[in-house]
Every structure is written in structure tokens, then in C-alpha cells.
Automatic annotation (TrEMBL):
Belongs to the EPSP synthase family. Catalyzes the transfer of the enolpyruvyl moiety of phosphoenolpyruvate (PEP) to the 5-hydroxyl of shikimate-3-phosphate (S3P) to produce enolpyruvyl shikimate-3-phosphate and inorganic phosphate. The keyword Transmembrane helix does not apply. Its EC number is 2.5.1.19. Pathway: Metabolic intermediate biosynthesis; chorismate biosynthesis; chorismate from D-erythrose 4-phosphate and phosphoenolpyruvate: step 6/7. Phosphoenolpyruvate binds at residues 22, 96, 124, 172, 345, 387, 412. The lineage of its organism: Bacteria, Pseudomonadati, Pseudomonadota, Gammaproteobacteria, Alteromonadales. Its main location: cytoplasm. It is found in: Cytoplasm. It comes from Shewanella jiangmenensis. The gene is aroA. The active site is at 314 (proton acceptor). 3-phosphoshikimate binds at residues 22-23, 27, 170-172, 198, 314, 337, 341. The keyword Amino-acid biosynthesis applies. This is 3-phosphoshikimate 1-carboxyvinyltransferase.
Amino acid sequence: MEKLRLEPVSRVNGEVNIPGSKSISNRALLLATLASGETTLVNLLDSDDIRHMLASLKALGVQFSLSDDKTVCTLQGLGGPIVADKAFELFLGNAGTAMRPLCAALTLGVGEFTLTGEPRMEERPIGDLVDALRQLGADIRYLKNDGFPPLTIKATGLAGGVVEIDGSLSSQFLTALLMVAPLAKDSVTIAVKGELVSKPYIDITLDLMAKFGVKVSNDKYQRFEIAAGQRYVSPGKVLVEGDASSASYFLAAGAIGGGEVKVTGVGRLAVQGDVKFADALAAMGADIEWSDDYIIARGSKLHGIDMDMNHIPDAAMTIATAALFATGPTRMSNIYNWRIKETDRLAAMATELRKVGAIVEEGHDYIHITPPAAPNHAEIDTYNDHRMAMCFSLLAFADCGVTINDPGCTSKTFPDYFKRFANLASQN
Ligand SMILES: O=C(O)C1=C[C@@H](OP(=O)(O)O)[C@@H](O)[C@H](O)C1
Ligand SMILES: C=C(OP(=O)(O)O)C(=O)O
């Protein structure tokens, strides 16, 4: 296994242009496929999660071309659902934003589709989405464990009507259902059961649906109405915002590293909820400057916070390692679904924070972190979780530095993360 030793960095100053958003890239690719007309996606993310979506669309016969650097994609929409005359097996890695939306989208047309993934994907739930799709008439069969991929879809289209969906484990189930609802045979009313988690991701979904010409009425994220007869129409060009979760590591670097870091490509106008990470950092005492399309974080003395982080589940991991540089404890709550992502992130985070000397209390849906007087050097295991690798890189700002095991796992969303980090660290 590869190991990357990050030597201590005392100060950073610099600018990072953040690659495209994973969440927007995969949604836009799918909606462009279902839409009529040609769509050009600009600033598309080039990472494993997007490659899985693109490879599946290609296998299904969707025509697109990519620029040499794979950040511009011109895609010919099908003007409706995917219709296949033979059976397909699609491998989706560990990409939740490919597995959940494709599972829903493939029920709309005709064909037989088997969706598989990495071993961890077989432990990530999809049952609440499948239950909802079955209410609309979908024929979906689990191949191994009930409620989890792999699964086979025998598609004949979706009826409309009222459908209930549980939103308490993942917002991606509701996202997937919303995106297919306009192409059902009748109007669809979605009633959300349970407390909807990761709510800001629904705003990304609704924003992209609107860009592709579909109207959804949203009654307090509890009930959504999607009228029949709507069609996705390409807006021509979609500019993908920089990834707000990826921005969190560099903003934290600015706040901890004593200098000033500007991240461009994402700012006040972003549709991604993870920009609110900058507010959490500000609550810790960081000096944050907002512009429409950039954010600057300047070093300052940080203190611990007590915050419900359900609205920023991905960027919240960066708060957990930033907490090592704060005075006093940090308490992060309402993050149960960390347990069902790339790894059990609550358990992994607690284990690795303890290695560097933090006192950690891990609960069912919370983590309390008391930082050590000075962290000690550790080899950080990353559990095949890109965010574990990226958020622990911040330990480079401690006198001990840090070793990251399997740094290549950042390829899920940010293949050249450590190159960018090293570039920034050299600008002081
Ligand atoms: O819809 C999306 O693009 C995402 C939603 C979130 O998942 P959950 O809704 O499962 O929390 C987030 O963690 C994931 O990285 C991307
Ligand atoms: C949870 C994540 O990914 P996924 O889209 O696979 O759910 C993530 O990127 O942190």
C-alpha cells in the first residue's frame, strides 16, 4: 500500500481553483441524457464517481464527447427514457450519486439492467428508494441482500400517483425519485416520511431540474408535486460549480495555516449546501471573506464549537480535523448517516483522531473531540474513503506532520488532491 508522508507546513498563502462539483456533474449528466437536445457541460469533474456515470451512459448507447482534459462534455440527449434491446450490467464503483439516480432512471424506459458496485456499495442501503419505485410499479430484484445492491431492474416505465419515501437515511433517494418523477405516466406526488437528512442536496436537484425546464412544487421538503406531461429540455450549456466539499480542505488550511487561502469556483452564489462549511469555520473563529464566486479563509485563533452538522455531512469531516487546532472541545451532532457512506465514518474518524492524541467520544449520531495539547505523528488509515485522506492532510499544519495511508483513494472525487495540497503548501 502506498503511504504519503506530509512534512510539517508552518504557513500557507495562495489560491486554489476547485474542480467541478461531483453532485452537480452526475445530476447534470443524467438529466442531459433524459433531455431533448444537445448539452455542453463545462467544468465537469474528472474523477472515479463521474467516470462510473459516463461509462454506464456510454454502455447504454448515449452519445457524448469529452475534451482532452475531460472537463467539457457535449452530450446528445435521448429526449426521454433509456430504451435497451439487450440486458446490461453496469458497475458503479462506490458512487452513490450514480447508483441511486441511475436505479431510478432506468426504471423509466424499457430493458433489463443489473447494477453492481464495489464491496462497500453492497453495504450501502438503497431499500427506501426501491420501496418508493415499487409503489410506482417498478420491478426491481435484489441479487444478494434485501435493501442493498447489486440489483436487477426489469423496466417497463413508471406509473404516477402518490408515493411515500423515507428520507431519514439519505437524501439521494429523494433526489433520484424527484429526477424521474416528470417522466412517469401520470403526475407524481411525493410524501417524505421521517426526518429528511442532508436537505441542501435537494436544492441542488431542484435547481438542475429547473435548469432543464421541469417545475416541481415543494411544500416544506415534506411534499413535492410534479405535474405529468413535463419533459426535460437541454438548456444548451451547464456550468458546473466548483465542488464545495472539496473546497473545505483548502479553506480549513487557510484558517489553520496562519496565512490566507482563496478558493475560486465556488462562493456566495453556489447552489451547494456545503458552502455553509465556511460559516462553521467562521463560528470556530476563522476570518472568512465571501464573494459571489470565491471564498477566502484567513488564519486566526480557532475555538471549538457545538453544532448540528446534518446540513453539511461531507464537509463536516473537515471540521472534525480542524477541531485538532482549536482550543476547547468540538461537538458535532446529527450525523448518523456518516455511518453508511464510504466507510463507517464515525468509527473511522474516532479511531484516527485518537491516534494523533485527541480524546474522542463517539455516539450513535455524534462525535465529541477534545484536541490534544499537541498532536503526535501517526499513520492515518483511510478506509478507502477519499474524505478521510483529505481531511487528515490538515495534520500537516501540526509540528509532527502526518502520514496518509493509501492517498490514491482521493480519486473518488479529487484525483490530484495531494498535488494541489503540496502546491499550496509550497506557497508561503
Ligand atoms: O446528493 C448528493 O449529491 C449527495 C448527498 C449526500 O448524501 P446523503 O444524502 O446520503 O447524506 C452527500 O453525502 C453525498 O456525497 C452527495
Ligand atoms: C458520501 C459521499 O459519496 P456518495 O456520493 O457516494 O454518497 C461523499 O462523497 O462523501
